[in-house]
Design brief:
mainly alpha
Length: about 280
């Protein structure tokens, strides 16, 4: 690929599915296409000529998705896909949606509200007997947010997102980071105000999140999140509510175990990073 534009060989090969291209050529082209309208036009022409069935499929998807999207955003997306230079009225908003989806906004607001409720219960109602409500909720709040960010039912542009060139691990990590950027600061404030040790809730929080991503590469992120929430509810939340005593998983002695789970989960995500480019990971 040249410094300025992709070669005809790479454009035509990518339009045919990329089987004849090296992996680094595919990655370089996809990165280049994000900022080069000229090459997007050339690719569009190549697809129209060499893969008309792809054009038909894209048109079918747009006909289903477009009515549920903001009309202005839909027009900008179509013009950008066609290679037309677009002047966005709010550049910061465009960058924001690379990290978030509109479906995540209500959930993130709910997560902050639940965290504040935990603060009220811990401060004025002494929690659940001697158990901090923050400790009970911290591990699962970000997991639920990650699940919401990948839910087919909540995101009307799910098909387009899943088929984007960078819909693999990079997008998974961006959305996960967006969830943590909202949830963790709120929990830091509540934890500091109630005197709960940061490590005691932050390590389970991060460990559960990494475990969700690791398992998500096998069964899908949303399914993994749901399964882990069920496990947490059955193994920790329900027994704690029933006995009024802190579960062993929430004790300070369990922190090395949470650190190990975080390390293992992160290792699995890195080792299986290619799995997140498969549509199954978006279930």
């Amino acid at each position: 690929m040249s410094v300025e534009h992709a070669s005809v060989r790479i454009i035509d090969g990518y339009a045919r599915g990329g089987a004849d291209l090296a992996a680094d050529e595919v990655w370089a082209l996809e990165s280049h296409l994000e900022t080069c309208p000229t090459c997007r036009v050339r690719l569009s022409d190549a697809v129209a000529t060499g893969a008309p069935d792809v054009v038909s499929l894209v048109d079918t998807v747009w006909s289903e998705v477009a009515p549920r999207l903001d009309p202005a955003a839909t027009m900008r997306a179509r013009r950008k896909a066609a290679g037309v230079s677009v002047r966005l009225p709010a550049r910061s908003r465009s960058a924001l949606w690379r990290w978030l989806t509109p479906a995540m906004a209500p959930w993130l607001a709910m997560a902050v509200a639940v965290t504040l409720t935990a603060y009220v219960l811990d401060t004025f109602d002494d929690g659940i007997d001697d158990v901090s409500v923050l400790l009970l909720l911290a591990p699962v709040l970000p997991v639920l947010g990650v699940a919401a960010s990948w839910s087919r039912g909540l995101d009307p542009a799910y098909e387009l997102t899943a088929a984007a060139p960078r819909a693999g691990l990079e997008l998974v990590l961006r959305r996960t980071a967006s969830v943590l950027a909202v949830v963790v600061p709120a929990q830091l404030l509540v934890g500091g105000a109630t005197g709960v040790s940061v490590a005691q809730w932050l390590l389970p929080c991060l460990a559960f999140t990494s475990a969700t991503l690791a398992l998500g590469g096998v069964v899908g992120v949303t399914r993994a999140a749901a399964a882990l929430v069920v496990v947490w509810s059955a193994a920790v939340l329900a027994p704690t509510l029933a006995t009024g005593r802190t579960a062993a998983a929430l004790d300070a002695d369990a922190l090395p175990g949470w650190a190990l789970l975080l390390t293992l989960g992160t290792g699995v995500v890195v080792a299986r990073r290619g799995a997140y480019a498969v549509l199954g990971a978006h279930r």
